[in-house]
Amino acid sequence: MCSGDHDMTIPYIGTHEWIESLNLTIKYDWEPWFVDGQVAGYAKLYADNVQDYITYDLTFATVKGGGHTAPEYRPEQCFAMMDRWFDYYPL
Questions:
Q1: What single DSSP character describes residue 37?
Q2: Of 25, 32, 62, 83, which sees the most CB atoms within 10 A?
Q3: Phi and psi for 51 in degrees, rounded to 5?
Q4: Which keywords does this chain's UniProt record carry (predicted)?
Q5: C-alpha 54: how far from its chain's center?
């Protein structure tokens, strides 16, 4: 999931609260992710732990300076994020 951090239509904090309601374990707390050496946003990794076995994980990422349609505001950063997702490469 991703949200622009300047989205006033559906603020990222609402998405964050919904994810928190899933009661997943936080694997990595907010960490910056980069494009061309610049902070492109922040990401938080959640995992579902069943007896120390991860059945799935979920990454929530913000796009720095992104509005409601983040790719319109920050196309390079959004492309890099999706490219990494398709390549199974972490942010």
A1: T
A2: 62
A3: 50, 55
A4: Carboxypeptidase, Glycoprotein, Hydrolase, Protease
A5: 19
